[in-house]
Amino acid sequence: MNPFVCDLPAYRVIFGPGTLAQLPDEVRRLGARRALVISMPAEARFAEEASRQLGDMSAGVYAGVVAQHVPVEMLKAAAEHAAQSGADCYVVIGGGSTVGVGKGLALQTGLPIVAVPTTYAGSEMTPIYGLTEAGVKKTGKDRKVMPRTVIYDVDLTMSLPSHISAPSGMNAMAHCVEALYAPDANPIVSLLAEEGIRALARALPAIVKDPSDRTARSDAQYGAWLGGTVLGAVAMSIHHKLCHTLGGTFNLPHAETHTIVLPHATAYNREAAPEAMRRIAGALGATDAAGGIYDLVGTIGAPRALKDIGMPEDGIERALDLALQNQYANPRPLDRDALRTLLRRAWAGERP
Ligand code: NAD
């Protein structure tokens, strides 16, 4: 076996139905006394319930998360509210947008986060934060933004509609796919990534078929946990770079962009990362990794074409300029013509 470094941050996970009830104990365990519960307006009912359970330990609810990618103005408003509330801990209940606000606050104050994720984005398992200023999103890594405790309560995901569940799960799968060919991949992370793909490939079609399938919902949370873990542990490559660029430049929805680009980014690396391809295809039960992902996207009825989510065709050259600006590790060298083909196919929704 080749030498490697495996750097997984410590975290605590509470997994299972009804586990939101353990929130007060988990906040107490961190030595906190006043937890501010943060959510989007649409998830305020969960936040209110959490606040009720916290009782005297609640610093109230802040349901002011109204956008993705943590715009700095939104974070400033949240920070003012949090300071006035006297909070010494943040409880974030929602998807990656809400977790992102908690991370932005923790970056400023160093206070601990308890995350209760309700989508499959996986942000709760990473020390990665993002902030958007004047339309430009910058990301960074800092252990202090990593939630100390994560509560995966399947009950809070039952209301996630299929059209959000499916792309959100593919976002988690994208983390797993790129972890398998990461420049700093290691055997432990690869095992987690492969298992994440397997869990998500099993769960997502079942959720779309029957959104009330609790077993499938909890499998998807398990896959999301693994996806987030590997995202935080190793470097991501061409797929994440392209999605970051496309999302930021054309204001495309995060999870849908990942869903559409993933089969094409996988195909781009098909020849250069054969062992990763073998493992991805095996976990999907497919003969070809990229084709298997494309078929899965079709099965779960998620979008397949960038043109269908608002990407202009004449934006392809601009996206290429930006994606090639900084060089980064990828199994196959970055080639403008080959990347143009990738983006054209993803734009049109063609088979990779
Ligand atoms: P999101 O948090 O914006 O949520 C998407 C939608 O789902 C929202 O409309 C929300 O109201 C709804 N929703 C959430 N839970 C629900 C539920 N239980 N029932 C019904 N509706 C529900 O989207 P997301 O895809 O989870 O997160 C995207 C953001 O997370 C992006 O900003 C992305 O950059 C970030 N992200 C960060 C990391 C990281 O490691 N830092 C990882 C993944 C994603």
**Strands in their spatial order, largest beta sheet:** 1-8-5-4-2-3
Give the mean pLDDT.
97
Shape: globular
For the sheet with most strands, the description reads: 6 strands, parallel
What is the architecture of the largest domain at the second tier of CATH?
Up-down Bundle
Radius of gyration: 19 Å
- Portion of residues in beta strands equals 5-15%
Write down the domain tally.
2
Q: Topology as H/E string?
A: EHEHEHEHEEEEHHHHHHHHH
Question: So what's the CATH class of the largest domain?
Answer: Mainly Alpha
- Tell me roughly what share of residues is in helical segments: 40-55%
Q: For this structure, what is the CATH homologous superfamily of the largest domain?
A: Dehydroquinate synthase-like - alpha domain
Map the helices and strands.
Layout: E1 12-15, H1 23-29, E2 35-38, H2 44-54, E3 58-62, H3 72-85, E4 89-94, H4 96-109, E5 113-117, E6 128-133, E7 136-141, E8 149-152, H5 162-180, H6 187-209, H7 214-233, H8 238-250, H9 254-268, H10 274-284, H11 289-299, H12 316-323, H13 336-348
Parallel strand pairs: 1-8, 2-3, 2-4, 4-5, 5-8
Antiparallel strand pairs: 6-7
Helix pairs in contact: 5-6, 5-7, 5-9, 6-7, 6-10, 8-9, 9-11, 9-13, 10-11
The chain binds nicotinamide-adenine-dinucleotide.
